[in-house]
Amino acid sequence: MCKINDAIIFSYETLNHAEISAGFGIWKKNTVTKKFTVSDNFYRFLGVEPNPIEPSLDIILQFVHPEDREEARKVNENSYLTNEPTTNYYRYLWHDGTIRYRVSVGHFSLNSKGELIKIGVSQNTIELMKKTEQLEQNNTQLNAINSEL
């Protein structure tokens, strides 16, 4: 039994460090019990220390940019009606008021009790957005140079 506990602890610590290094957070919602849980790094995405708030869709949506909030709610709610996987790109407000970008991907699975669970990964895409903006600026400059030629 001790080896199993050690393996579980090692797996948890490995996943926790991977989340921090790769810039993602994990979440899940049990569709039967309605219990919503998130990883420590998901809390860090919100700009809060791990476990200071009880996670729920309504609480998480408070961190989503107001212009993206209704669409994020709609995509999420529709997925529970259809049990279809989701991919949602949205902005969220960091604790200092800056805008961050995130992609959230979720799919459905059954747990050991046969309950339907939606499992997801959210990833910070700010670096991708910066690179995209830089490419767009470079493209604009190249088009201007090509026009002059």
Helix content: 40-55%
Summed over residues and divided by their number, the pLDDT gives a mean of: 86
Could you tell me how far the N terminus lies from the C terminus, measured between alpha carbons in angstroms? 74 Å
Output the number of helix runs: 5
CATH class: Alpha Beta
pLDDT under 50 segments (min length 5)? none
The 3D shape can be described as globular
Instruction: Tell me the count of domains.
Output: 1
What is the fold-level CATH name, i.e. the topology?
Answer: Beta-Lactamase
Query: Can you summarize the main beta sheet?
Result: 5 strands, antiparallel
Describe the protein.
This protein is α+β, with helices and mostly antiparallel strands. The chain has one domain: PAS domain (Beta-Lactamase), CATH 3.30.450. Helix content is 49%, strand content 26%. It has five helices and five strands. The chain has helices at 2-22, 40-46, 57-61, 66-82, 126-148; strands at 24-30, 36-38, 86-93, 99-110, 116-124. A five-stranded antiparallel beta sheet has the order 2-1-5-4-3, with helices on both faces. The chain is globular, with a radius of gyration of 19 Å. The mean pLDDT is 86.
